[in-house]
Structure formats: C-alpha cells, structure tokens
Amino acid sequence: MKKVADILRRKGARVISIPPETAVIDALQLMADKNIGSILIMRGDEYFGLLTERDYARKVILKGKHSSDTRVEEIMSIGLPRITPENSIEVCMHLMSENNIRYLPVFENDDICGIISINDVVKETILTHEETISQLKDYLHAAM
After folding, report:
1. Label partner for 72 (CA 20 to 30 A): which of 2, 18, 121, 131?
2. CA-CA-CA-CA torsion for 67, 69, 73, 77, nearest 10 degrees?
C-alpha cells in the first residue's frame, strides 16, 4: 500500500512558506513564480495554516477585498486534518473528499515536513495502477 512518504520522496519534501503578515498579492506572486497552488504560513518553525488559490478566490475576490491590503493570516485555511508520512494514500483521499479540500499538511513529530495535493494523490494512484498492469503483463508473458 502506497503512503504519503512515497509522494514526498517522488516530489521532494521541500516546503515553501511565508509569514502570516505577508500581503496576499505577494503570496500569490510567489505561488505563481513557483507554480504551486498552496503555500505554508509559518513563522520560523511554527505552523499557522495554509493559503490556497481557493482561499484567495473565496475570501478576497468574492468579498470585494484587495489582495494588496489583505494579509494572508486573514484568509488562510486553518484546522486542516494533519497527516504523517506513514498515512496511506487511501486515508488522504478519504480526508480530502470528506472535508472538500485539495491540500493536506504533512507532519512528522509535530514538525511540518511537506504538503500533498489531490494532484499528488492522483499521480501516485496512477503510478500504482501502471505498476500493477506492468507486473500482470510480465506474469502473463512469462506464463505463455
């Protein structure tokens, strides 16, 4: 069974973070520069929350706020389920579906060690299916 650790190994566990007082426009620019859909909100080693593109769309644009006047701490997602590298991909799919979220922070010994997205989970699931298909083809080929 594939685990979160497999995703982090494949994509890398490097985390990108910004402090809570950062202007939303600056966070969005960093996210665009790094081609990511979410960013950790941290001060030093302390985790505060996660900012996503969805947070921006729903809490800035739809509320008539301005991204240059709004700080990320005002709109970030908090209270997200915490997962560990040992959690299974199935657990992540369940949490994401149940909570209608696309990102999960990953913690090891209460320290943040990464973020996984629904896209990461889908990619890992596809890779698992491709591995299974390849093994079945090899088995069938050897049996003939």
Report:
1. 121
2. -30
| Pairwise CA distance, residues 86 & 3, whole Å | 6
Q: Write the DSSP string, 83-141.
A: B-TTSBHHHHHHHHHHHT-SEEEEEETTEEEEEEEHHHHHHHHHHHHHHHHHHHHHHHH
Q: How far is CA 123 from CA 20, 39, 89, in A?
A: 31, 20, 11
Give domain 4-143's CATH architecture: Roll (3.10)
Q: Which two tokens stand for residue 133?
A: 């298909």
* CA-based R_g, the chain, Å: 18
Whole-angstrom distance, CA of residue 5 vs CA of residue 44: 24
pTM as predicted: 0.86
Give residue-wise pLDDT tens across range 9-61.
998 868 899 999 999 999 999 999 999 999 999 999 899 999 999 999 999 98
Domain boundaries, the chain: 4-143
CA dist 64 and 22 (Å) reads 19
- Of the candidates 104, 63, 65, the one whose C-alpha atom is nearest the C-alpha of residue 87 is 104
